[in-house]
Known about the structure:
The chain is of the alpha/beta class. It has two domains: 201 residues, inorganic pyrophosphatase (n-terminal core); 122 residues, Diaminopimelate Epimerase, Chain A, domain 1 (Roll). 36% of the residues lie in helices and 21% in strands. It has a seven-stranded parallel sheet with strand order 1-7-6-5-2-3-4, sandwiched between helices. A six-stranded mixed sheet has the order 8-9-10-11-13-12. Strand 8 and strand 9 form a beta hairpin. Helix 2 packs parallel to helix 4, helix 2 runs antiparallel to helix 5 and helix 4 runs antiparallel to helix 5. It starts with a strand and ends in an 8-residue tail after the last helix. The site of manganese (II) ion has 6 residues, from loops.
Amino acid sequence: MxxxxxxxxxxxxxxxxxxFRSPGGHALMLGHVHPDADVLGTxxxxxxxxxxxxxxxxxxxxHPAPAALAFLPGIERYQQLHALDGRFDVAVLTDxxxxxxxxxxxxxxxxxxxxVVNIDHHPDNRRYGDVNWIDVSAAATGELVYELLxxxxxxxxxxxxxxxxxxxxxxxxxxxxxxxxxRTFRTAAALVQAGADxxxxxxxxxxxxxxxxxRWLGAALGRVEVSDDGxxxxxxxxxxxxxxxxxxxxxLVNYPRSVATVRVACLFREYLGQVKVxxxxxxxxxxxxxxAQFGGGGHPNxxxxxxxxxxxxxxxxxxxxxxxxxxxxxxxxxx
Length: 335
Ligand code: 5GP
Ligand code: MN
């Protein structure tokens, strides 16, 4: 496509629908690094709907799907990709704000695909597609793909409903965060009506811990530190301190966030010689702006970045940026 189309409205326009109206073709469902349920659930749901219409679909991304999401219907089709093979009529990226989060696969996809479709809800989305549907008011990309499937007249099968419901469930912290709107609940209701089972999803997400997981959780929580003024809490995990599997399945940054006085919570995780930082806020400061200072991104209340620095230095510079942001935010007093 020669000129890119960008949409920000709440409903998918014809430009978004057109690439999927074809009665068949080969689609690439391309995931981002460290894929979560929002990206995986949406790629699997849209992919299944296309397959039902006679398309051939390839699912994959730079990293494998985490074991904790093994219950998503069709997840066994999602492969770790190092290079792309063949040509595609459409390459779809969901929940992926910038091309760097595909570790170079987007550049190959641009050459291998006639049309790149970018569907996302991140405010810092770079509009890298031929068609861009960015709706920052959506709590999850799952809401957008639900609307896309409805507009296409695609049947919502129980596997599709489960994938999209899980996307909503995880991106909203089980329907608890400030991104939740009536639209989120309306979408969730329709998905449950279509066969998603909330108890099944919750059980897989929260009640499948390994026998030793609570001991590791205890070890991790023992590392939480809170600033003297109570406004910042953080958790530092040197490599090897807690098993990767536990970190992947526990959303550990939610624990420092749960302290009443805390306005910004941080997780510093030493990982493959770098430091992966997760930031969470409560509406006082825009943590995405803090992450952006270090080349990262995300949402106003949930963001992240990766620093190629020693753990102690990464911790120091990010906490300094958090304190500076809090000092500049008059409303961020201890409550
Ligand atoms: P998490 O802390 O759960 O890894 O990520 C929270 C949010 O921040 C997600 O929306 C994710 O897209 C974003 N995020 C996390 N790490 C990075 C990063 O290294 N770079 C960018 N651009 N965004 C990130
Ligand atoms: Mn998302």
